[in-house]
Amino acid sequence: MPSTSITLTADMARHFATGHYTRGRIAPYIDLPTLAGAGALRSTIIDMLSFAAANLDDHGDELRQAMAAAHLPRHRIDPEMQIGLNWHILRVGDRDIVWHNGGTPGFSTFIGLDEERDTAIVVLSNTSATNVDDIGFHLLDKRLPLEPAPSKRRQIMLPSKVLARYVGIYDVAGTNVTITRSAQGLTAHVPDQGTVRLYAETKTKFFLTVPDAQFFLGAVDADITFQLDSEATVTGFILRQDGQEIPIKKIG
Question: Looking at residue 229, which CATH number applies to its domain?
Answer without folding.
Answer: 2.40.128.50
